[in-house]
């Protein structure tokens, strides 16, 4: 039983947004997107990303956290102090693809899982418990020989 939604058909972000900085890594990526100021909801989401990665234990080095922000850059002090290793980027074309591929029945503001080949794999609701996201990610990492 998955806690997240498998995104089918699989979307290749390499094809959809070929020049995106999201392709600069060959790791699995957990991505959170926020267009506005990083307020309380955003900070909670970044915390969830961090906790999820930490809970992966020995597998955490296979997963990278990405914060996709809008025109307003995130608080660099917050990132440096609380979210070391978080990749922060702005990419409106990537955001448009993510918004288009998120199942309409699921709430906005969740998390996306991208595989090392740049495929959009899963979407997790914003209110997901980190341990539930960890269950899904661990299952995929166990089955995967990539990243």
Provide key terms for this protein.
147 residues; alpha/beta; 6-stranded mixed beta sheet; 5 helices; 6 strands; 35% helix; 24% strand; globular
Class by alpha and beta content: alpha/beta
Measure the end-to-end span. 23 Å
The radius of gyration over CA amounts to: 14 Å
Percent of residues in helices comes to 25-40%
Q: How would you sum up the global shape?
A: globular
With strands numbered from the N-terminus, the spatial order across the biggest sheet is: 1-6-5-2-3-4
Low-confidence stretches: none
In what range is the share of β-strand residues? 15-25%
Number of helices: 5
Mean pLDDT: 91
Report the biggest beta sheet as strand number plus sense, adding barrel if it closes. 6 strands, mixed
| Number of separate strands | 6
Series of secondary-structure elements, N-terminal to C-terminal:
EHEHEHEHEEH
Q: What does it look like?
A:
By secondary structure, this protein is an alpha/beta fold. The protein is 35% helix and 24% strand. It is built from five helices and six strands, in the order βαβαβαβαββα. Helix 2 (40-55) packs across helix 5 (130-143). The longest helix is centred in the first third of the chain and has 16 residues, at 40-55. The protein is globular and about 35 Å long. The relative contact order is 0.26. The mean pLDDT is 91.
In brief:
The chain is 35% helix and 24% strand.
List the helices and strands and how they pair.
Elements: E1 5-12, H1 13-16, E2 28-34, H2 40-55, E3 63-69, H3 76-82, E4 87-89, H4 92-101, E5 111-114, E6 119-124, H5 130-143
Parallel strand pairs: 2-3, 3-4
Antiparallel strand pairs: 1-6, 2-5, 5-6
């Amino acid at each position: 039983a998955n806690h997240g939604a498998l995104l089918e058909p699989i979307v290749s972000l390499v094809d959809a947004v070929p020049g995106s900085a999201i392709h600069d890594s060959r790791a699995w990526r957990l991505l959170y997107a926020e267009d506005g100021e990083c307020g309380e909801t955003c900070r909670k989401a970044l915390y969830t990303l961090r906790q999820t990665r930490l809970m992966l234990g020995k597998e955490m080095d296979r997963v990278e956290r990405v914060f996709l922000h809008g025109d307003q850059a995130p608080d660099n002090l917050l990132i440096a102090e609380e979210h070391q290793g978080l990749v922060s980027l702005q990419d409106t074309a990537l955001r448009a693809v993510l918004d288009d591929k998120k199942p309409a029945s699921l709430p906005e503001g969740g998390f996306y899982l991208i595989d090392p080949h740049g495929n959009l794999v899963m979407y997790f609701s914003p209110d997901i418990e980190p341990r539930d996201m960890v269950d899904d990610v661990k299952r995929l990492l166990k089955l995967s020989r990539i990243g």
